[in-house]
Amino acid sequence: MTTELERAEQVRSKIHIKNPLVRNALSEFFGTFILLFIGIGIVMQFILSNEKLNTWINVNLGWGLAIAFSVYLCSKTSGGHFNPAVSIAFLTLGKLPLKDFLVYCVVQTLGAILGSIAAFGLYYDQFNKFAGAFRTIIGSKATAGCFCSYPALHVSNTTAFFDQFAGTALLILFVCVVVDKRNGIPASAHPLLFGLVVMMIGTAYGMNLGYPINPARDLGPRIFSYFIYGSGVFSYHSYYFWIPVVAPLFGAVFGAWSYLFFVGAHIPEQRETTYVLVDEANQPLKLATDA
Predict the structure, then answer these.
(1) Closest C-alpha among 220, 236, 214, 36 to residue 118
(2) Which residue in 73, 120, 236, 278 is a FRET match for 3, CA 20 to 30 A apart?
(3) Which of 122, 126, 147, 123 is nearest to 137 (CA)?
């Protein structure tokens, strides 16, 4: 065991990336890949089994866990954004440089594309069993929804826009609550809480679109699915495709600054209290502080 650990440390010392942007970009790419590989698989299991192996609550629970463990994966590197909406919120708050934001958006989308490809590969036989040779966007054997969101025909694009705006605003609002150090939430609990927030949003506002609330999560698989379903993946519903890409960005900024204006800026600063610990003879031992 010791030898194995030593080997691991030797490899680590050789491949460790010192450039923070490159290191974080690699984490964002891999983390988004893992998130989509799990998340798309959850949706595929839901659709391709005629909703027998998964139910809607299973989908919400699964995505929540996928978020939680994927963020744990990259919590000590990039922090685990996996979502351009999260990244743009941090950009406007001054927590992420513009260059990093642009790089994150690219690698997140690439990770989402490859994650969806990997999930499709594992479920390829199930696609054939469910729909035969047909690959359709709508209908009883439609499978395009395995990859990205397609609103029902009665859901207008206006409703879809505000659905994505509101859902992402809620996501980023509570992300800000969790990461604000003034709230005193332990860092080790952050990923799990992010997953619970996603579950909450899904159970409240998943009906219209399935709550993508993540431009990379929707656009990446949509790009890949173009090679399976054709141009309809972009032209469907009066070119709906741009809405889950653009609306979350506006919603994220709104959610982040709503938290700051309504709550975050008004949390009192905690004062540090100093205590002197003494022994039985009332002699000072050391100083202790409470924040």
Answers:
(1) 36
(2) 73
(3) 147
What distance in Å separates the CA atoms of residue 172 and residue 259, rounded to the nearest whole number?
9
Question: Of 95, 74, 112, which Cα lies nearest the Cα of 218?
Answer: 112
Q: Note whether 177 and 183 are within 8 A (CB).
A: yes
Please provide residue 273's backbone torsions phi and psi, each rounded to the nearest 5 degrees: -105, 130
Q: Give the pTM.
A: 0.91
HSE of 70 in the Cβ direction (CA atoms, 13 Å)? 29
State pLDDT tens for residues 128-186. Answer: 999 999 999 999 999 999 999 999 999 999 999 999 999 999 999 999 999 999 999 99
Contact 184, 171 (CB under 8 A): no
Enclosing H/E stretch for 273: strand 273-278
